[in-house]
Amino acid sequence: MATLFTGAAHIGIKALDIEKALRFYREVLGFRLIQRIRPGEAELVFLELGNTVIELVEVVDNRTFEDGVVNHLALRVEDIFQAIKHLQEHHVEMPSVEPMSLDEGRYNFFFRGPSGEKLELYQD
Q1: Pairing assessment for the beta strands 118-123 and 73-76 based on DSSP bridges
Q2: What confidence tier does 10 reach under pLDDT thresholds 50, 70, 90?
Q3: Residue 60 neighbours by CB distance under 10 Å
Q4: From CA 90, how far away is CA 88, in angstroms rounded?
Q5: Which of 9, 71, 92, 96 lies 20 to 30 Å (CA to CA) from residue 122?
Q6: What's the farthest any 2 CA atoms get from each other in the chain?
Q7: Residues in a beta bridge with 76
């Protein structure tokens, strides 16, 4: 039997200010712009980092939203301490300044994106 599901196409992230979010994901986190479209009233911006594609979804008229069952995006890094320093230099919102040790050289660290989205650095 063939596999019905072949992988994730993208991860959607709501953006309160689409231009600010686009700058953050490109300039701070190093994502590459793939496409911008406006299929309806909200603009969609697709960005890529490695094999991961995210879709920034414009929040229209400041409509409020809550976390869904997917509540964060984790980004793999080679040097979490250097990555945290990079975030600090870009004045990114961080609840702490030290990563959490998971065991055997693995670490994670949570921070916030420009729309308050929860993001994670992960080093293994």
Answers
A1: parallel
A2: confident
A3: 11
A4: 5
A5: 9
A6: 51
A7: 122
Beta bridge partners of 12: 55
Contact (Cβ atoms closer than 8 angstroms) between residue 56 and residue 21: yes
How far is the CA of 107 from the CAs of 73, 74, 78, 98, 100, in angstroms? Answer: 15, 12, 10, 10, 5
Burial of 49 (0-12, 13-18, 19+ CB in 10 A): middle
Per-residue CA distances from 114 to 23, 24, 59 (Å):
9, 7, 13
pLDDT digits (tens, 9 = 90+) for 20-65: 999 999 999 999 999 999 988 889 999 999 999 999 988 887 666 6
Euclidean distance between CA atoms 26 and 21, whole angstroms: 9
> Per the structure block, which two tokens stand in for 47?
């960005």
Q: What is the pTM of this model?
A: 0.80
